[in-house]
Amino acid sequence: MSSASFLDGLALAATLTGDRGRAAEAGLAPELARALEARVQEIRGADTQGRQRALGAIAVGLRPGIDARATLPARGAAILASEVPRATGAAWMARAPLPRPGFRASAGLRATMRRLAGAPIDEAADRARGAVLAQEQDERSATFVRIARATGRDVEAALGAMERGAREGGEDRGARAGRELAALWERGCRG
Q: Can you tell which superkingdom this protein's organism belongs to (predicted)?
């Protein structure tokens, strides 16, 4: 996730909650707070259709990637057929039974199927990586540890996922957070 997508995510949240980014700005470095304010104003300044297009594009970018090799039930794969390459989607549709007349997959069902179809995560490797990072004494590692503790999840697993994302990328939540933190760190944002 680039810094632009990080700001887009905050702008989307600010728009949906109606706070115009003020709550998020309080916890950001001044440079990022100004960038967030500018992004929120850009979205708010657009006409209704422009705002809907901008927010829709941000929301689509937040969806987890789909692994075309994922093992899904036939009906579940068919629900996601329009979100993968044409040949893969056609194969998924061909093996699925016809849905009942009038069936429409809810947004929640589609989101659940997307998560199930995401690339597999090696949690043991994340924990091992996180255990090493937790022992480091530098400022960057301390920041990662503080954020991992704030997630309320297994600290070593969260740390490992963030470190994996910072170094290798990845589409799960921890990896995206790590990628963004690394980008912010490189830009000189500390804390």
A: Bacteria
User: Could you report the per-residue pLDDT of 83-127, keeping only the tens digit for each?
Assistant: 888 898 899 999 999 989 999 999 888 888 887 787 666 666 666
**Are 163 and 144 a contacting pair, CB within 8 Å?**
yes
d(CA 119, CA 64): 9
In the numeric block, which tokens belong to residue 161?
């996922």
> Can you list the alpha helix ranges (DSSP code H) found in 46-153?
48-61, 74-79, 86-95, 107-116, 123-135, 139-150
- Least Cα distance to 190 among 146, 131, 126, 134 occurs for 146
Look at the pTM and tell me if it is higher than 0.70: no
- Cβ–Cβ under 8 Å, residues 163 and 178: yes
